[in-house]
Amino acid sequence: MTLYQFLTKSSYFIKPLGSQSQKKIQITKTICRAVSTTQQTTGAQSSLLECETQENISNDELYLNEIYRSIPFSHAKLGKFYQDRPALENQYTQDAFLRSFLRRHLPSKHFKLVDEDLNRFGNRVTKDIYELSLRLEAEQPKLEQIDAWGKRTDKLILSTAWPQMKEIAAEEGMIACGYERIFDEWSRLYQISKFYLFEPSGGLFGCPLAMTNGAAKTLEVLKDKHSWVYDKAFSRMISRDPNTFWTSGQWMTEKQGGSDVARGTETIAVPQSDGSYKLYGYKWFSSSTDADISLTLARVVDKSGSVIEGTKGLSLFYLEVRDENSIMNNIQMLKLKNKLGTKQLPTAELLIDGARAFKISEDGRGVASMANMLTMTRIHTAMGAASSMRRMVNLARDYSTRRKAFGKILHQHPLHVNTLAFMEIETRAATILVLEIARLLGRQEVLGKGKELEDEAEVLRLIVPLAKLYVSKQAVSVLSEGLECFGGQGYIEDTDLPRMLRDTQVNAIWEGTTNILSLDVLRAITKSSGTVLKCYHEDVTRRIQAGRSNAELQEAVTAVQQSVNNVLGLASKLSPDLVEMAARDFAFSLARIYMGALLLEHACHTDATQMDIVTAKRWCEKDLAPLCTQGGHQNFTQKSMEQNLALVFDGYLHPSRL
Ligand SMILES: Cc1cc2nc3c(=O)[nH]c(=O)nc-3n(C[C@H](O)[C@H](O)[C@H](O)COP(=O)(O)OP(=O)(O)OC[C@H]3O[C@@H](n4cnc5c(N)ncnc54)[C@H](O)[C@@H]3O)c2cc1C
């Protein structure tokens, strides 16, 4: 007997009570109890028994039939209410901030073409590209090391969506557009804007593309010294033809160190008579394991069999991962990493066992030659983090027009909208930093030299690590807040929302952790004997200048000006070891101040909207100088350093390890 048959038959068990409404409640309760019991058991029998306990059978068939029709629970019906899902709509046309930045900077002839392409692409990332990303999450990479007959295969089994993503990346010219430079100095801005749309839908294919962009930049710079590598690999990395397009890996991290590659790199390079090298080592993290080529670090072995320790011993090598018959270049995949997120992306431990490679840096200049690659991958990391915030905010905003609570749509609750507004401000601040970096990079690449460009290069040297370290942290907080905006649904895997948070967490770790990047900021300042900081200060002051004549922005301008003076003043008083302890607060302060300056500048341009002004003001109301405000210099003393250690290890069972 089906449930429906059971329910219609069981009608005569139910007793009508006095009033109509009472009758209705009694009937509904009985039927519901019957249904829930039925669902928990294998048949209708137990429900029947429960209904039979009802006394005084009614014959009011007509009335009951009507009731049955309106009962929302049955095998055929899941209830009357379905929550509208948040809609994923054109990610470009609905991004008022991205569009206004592009309109402000691009000459109209370029803006027209860029706007057209991003409009089309903004739609595409919600369609086939997004669908592929869902497949990539569902069909995660697997490693078959040994086949059924005992032969070592090291076969990486990938979803067919992965090569499809690669095809799309080539056809869309994701890498190419940064190097063809058809939009002159704005080509990088166009490229990074396009990635900004792609990344949250890209199923982590953005990772190999980031490394490819970095490798292309590295080889472009080395063009004259290593022309054959450039001719062979560069043209493929910037190809729009899927048949020739190559992606690159970046193998630096070894078991002893990802942050500290100088001490952690054990891989050695043995010179061969034909000028090539054979590499031997163990790479602990290698993302995009299916890449066609890789750039990696190793120590050249001299004739006595010795290597030089430290950074001075590291050189940069180019290798092709497979030959033309897809046979691995003496590289074995030992394990695929079981990761918190980025599960779509294969990340492997590799044993390099005599891989043929070519040195593309001078001896001992490996880390320096890798700098361009790291700059590019760090820009990608910050961009990816900012774009994940934008995607989450877009979805949460849309959901706030569809979900009802306490008799109102969510957007009618001021508290909820306040939360969304906080997320929007964070997203705009992150986005403007990333876009400005792209704009400055494009200027460096296309416009050549000059005092203004030299100063911009110094600023760029500082703001790339700042963006990477700060935006990555912002993204985790905004995405976590974003999940909450969906209530319980935010925690449910098949909404695809939890994945977004998981995937975002990695940004703070790969390409350098927050602390390592903070130390990198200090290094940039020390190495330039303070020039970097001087240029930064001048740049901030120049950018906020226009805001001085705008009454609405006065307070914000003052906040930025005072913060930058206070932070630089305090930092200059700290001794080197205390500066190191303060590096993170120092970097956060520089990042927040710079974002404030950018937002103020944006709010003063001729087409600025009221929302641009609100954004700048709100951002500058924030604590822009945590270095000074969160305890300030009282926290950065020898005594507090000792207290920290004592506090952290209070109760620790192995004090002898300290
Ligand atoms: C999913 C994923 C994919 C990756 N893919 C790649 C890849 O393709 N290629 C590649 O080369 N690497 C890759 N990595 C490795 C990654 O770049 C490193 O793990 C990362 O740079 C951190 O290095 P580590 O693991 O050695 O951390 P550690 O250096 O061991 O850091 C541990 C902690 O100590 C802190 N710390 C370390 N030194 C200092 C210091 N001097 N002062 C203050 N704090 C310090 C760090 O901030 C961190 O909190 C990947 C990592 C992940 C998670």
Essential attributes:
26 helices; binds flavin-adenine dinucleotide; 5-stranded mixed β-barrel; 658 residues; globular; single chain; alpha+beta
Strand order of the largest sheet: 4-5-9-7-6
What is the number of strand segments? 11
Bound compounds, each kind once, are: flavin-adenine dinucleotide
Structural class call reads: alpha+beta
Flag low-confidence runs: 6-55
Global geometry:
globular
Beta-strand percent range = 5-15%
Kindly describe this structure.
- The chain is α+β, with helices and mostly antiparallel strands.
- It is built from 26 helices and eleven strands.
- It has a five-stranded mixed barrel. A two-stranded antiparallel sheet has the order 1-2.
- Strand 4 and strand 5 (277-287) form a beta hairpin.
- Helix 2 runs antiparallel to helix 3 and helix 10 (187-198) packs antiparallel against helix 16 (414-447).
- The longest helix has 35 residues, at 451-485.
- The model is unreliable at 6-55 (pLDDT under 50).
- Bound molecules: flavin-adenine dinucleotide.
- Flavin-adenine dinucleotide binds next to strand 3, strand 5 and helix 19.
- Flavin-adenine dinucleotide binds at residues 250-253, 257-260, 285-287, 339, 342, 347, 506, 509-513, 515-516, 519.
